[in-house]
Structures are given as structure tokens and as C-alpha cells.
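Sequence in, structure out.
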Amino acid sequence: MNTIIQASKINEQDYLELLSLNKLVSIFELLVTQKQIEINARRTMKRIFCIFCYFLVLMLIFAAIVLNFCIVPVYLFSHTPVVTGKPVKIEIKPGSKGYQIIRKLTEKLQLSALDSKKFYILLKLSGHDKNLKPGEYEILCYSTPLDIIDQLFKGKIIKYTIVIPEGSTLFDIAEKLEQIGLADRKKILELAKDPLFIKSLGLSAPSLEGYLFPDTYIFTRHDTPSTILSTMVKEFKRRFKPEWIKRAEKMGFTVHQVVTLASIVEKEAVKDEERPIIAAVFINRLKIGMPLQSDPTAVYDIPNFKGPIRKSHLHRNSPYNTYIIKGLPPSPICNPGEASIKAVLFHKKVPFFYFVSKGDGTHFFSKTYGEHLKHIKRVRPTKKKIVKDGDKNK
């Protein structure tokens, strides 16, 4: 019995020792496993790092290639003048695409195919490829591609300044517009006599003669004939003040009649101080039904007339010739300035019916025809030719 008990104690002790041994083995295996995991993790990190370094090197190589073969050349090109001779004019039509503009620049500036590609890349990088303004441009000498892109983006187009002197006729204006290349002379003349166009401007007249206000205007190559003419008419309306309309009505005149008489004064007067007196002479004649007998009216409808006015002209059968018609001609004979319009509206209260040029831009004024003849005899021996049309005897 004791032997059995003793044997069981030994087995129990062996079991405990075996159990402890298993635990130690398990712990050891666990430690080994953790160590292996750490080793594998390090290996994985090394692989990832190696792959990252590999791709980083590739990216740096690629970046170096792009920098060397794309960015640097484009950058250098962007700061290199492409116009070294005379300024170059180029016209960008409305709706032109970026590549079309670059193609036109390439032709005008005589760029190589490679520079053309650089120009297009630069335009794309600038972000302005869809925001370039149409118009006529002058590319100045030593302009760089960046300068050109900035010029086209900001719309710094060529602007033409045209000066319309007082007394210019519709024909004069049409010729001047054609000379600087802004409009075709025939189109201007046709449009200025188009009843529908005239009506659209709020006017009731046979043509725009008299309503194209003399001033300095700025136009561009893309301004149409209708835009040019309407701009001048708008300036006339702006200058012809509402109180002037009331003044004309008080005088018994329409605006058209005021402008027509002002156009005659414009052609006859040289000195501003005499305009209200000359206007008064014509108004005095109108009041008694006396012909105005203004020389410039006799030749107004002669195409391209350059003078001088001769006696034969005064007998021409023309609706504008105030030697053979009574009252005012059907429309103005030129485009009068503000001074002549004011001279009609605020004419002097004088008793004169005649005037004759002294030859120096001033006139002798007379009440009677007898006085007028004396003044003619007085000035005729030393009478000089005056630059202005209409320094004629009245």
C-alpha cells in the first residue's frame, strides 16, 4: 500500500515537472515566433525602403530629363526676344483658338517648329490660352513670348486716332477713314445715306451730313462702319444740349434747320468772333425771304470738288445752290462744330444783310447793297485768297 502511495507521489511530481517543461517550451516558442516576426518586419521595411528609393531615383531622373529638355528650354525661350527688327502687326480674329493664334504668330515672327511648340507650351502653362482678346496688335521690337502673351491677354490692341476738323464733309470723313484703313469709303457713304440706318439713330434727315460731330475719335480695326458713324452721331447728340433744342424752337427752327444753317456759317466764317454776326446776316435774309447766296452751297453736291469757286458755279441748277433757291438747302453742307451751332442759336442782333471778305479772314459787314459795293471796291484791289471755302462776296 505504501509502495502504491509512494509511486503516485512520484508520478504527480513527474507530471508537474513535465507541465513546467511544456510551459517553458511554449514560452520559448513564443519568443522565437516574436523574434521571427520582428525579423520579417525588418526585412519587409527594408524592401519597401529599397523600392521607395528606387522609384525616387527614377522620379529624380525623370524630373531631371523634363527639366533639362522641357522646362529649362521653355523658360529660356519665354525670356528671349522674338522680335528683333521692325514691329510686327498681327490680327487676331474673334473665336480664334490658342493653337491658331500660335500658328499665326509663328508665321508672322518666322519662328522655327521647335520654338512654335515652346510657344504653345508656354501659352498653356500661362492659363491664358482661352482668354486671348481678338483685335489688331503691334508686337514691338524686343518683345518676348511672355510679353506677347500678356499683350494678347490684356487686349492691348492698336487704336487709331482720327481727327475730324470742323467743316469736314461726309466725303472728307469717308476718305480719311479709308486712308487709315478703318473703313471702305463707299460703304461709309452708302450707310450714311441709308434711311433705315439713319432712322435707327433717331434722326430724320436725308443723310448723316451735319450730324457727324467734329472731334477726335479713337477706333480699332474691328470697329464696323456702323459703329464708327453711330459713335459720331452719339457725340453730336451729347453736345447738342436739351436747352439748345428749346432755344431752336423759340427761334422757330428745327434742329435740322439749325444744323443746316450752322454748316453754312462753318464754311463762311474764319474767325470765331465773327460767326454770330455771319449767322445773323443769314437769319436776317431768311426773315425777309432774301436768298442766302452762299458760295459753298453752290458746289456742295459736286463730287470731289476742290475749288476755286467760279461764277459759273453760282448759276448751277442744284437744290443746294442758295443763289437760285430761297431759304435753306435740304440738308447741311458740312459737319459744323459747336462754335457755329452756338453762333446760329445765339446770333448777334445786328442789322446787316451783306458781308465781304477783307482777305485776312475777317469781313466788312453792310446794311445796304450800296455799302456792300463800296466795301467790295475797297478790298478787291488787295484781296487775297483765303484758305477757307466761302470767303466770297455777299
